[in-house]
Here is the input.
Amino acid sequence: QLPLLREGFPGDPATGVLAGDDEASDPYFTRHGSLPCPALDPGTGRCDLYAHRPLSCRTFGPPVQIGEAALPPCHLCFQGASESTVEACRVEADPRDVEGRILDRLGEEETLVAFAVAA
Here is the structure.
């Protein structure tokens, strides 16, 4: 999967570091959005990183509040639900901003699971 993801990568394809340009990134993520996560075992469909999965994986599905950002839910999880029902399910994933403190120490670089797993 990594060779496919390197094509048109909106950043440095050698390191997997994203450039941080959302306008350039959006078409890339739209193009590759249907690919399965590279951390999924193709034989079992289970996540190889489950115990150590990143915050984005831990919060996929429900509507999530991360700091000031109100992220939408997975469109498949709330089919036919009213807006008030969806909002009643909203969770605050990191109320003590632990991830923010870690990111402050690591710097601003972002990457994809596929590049991190390949490293």
Summary: The chain has a mean pLDDT of 88. The longest helix spans residues 22-32.
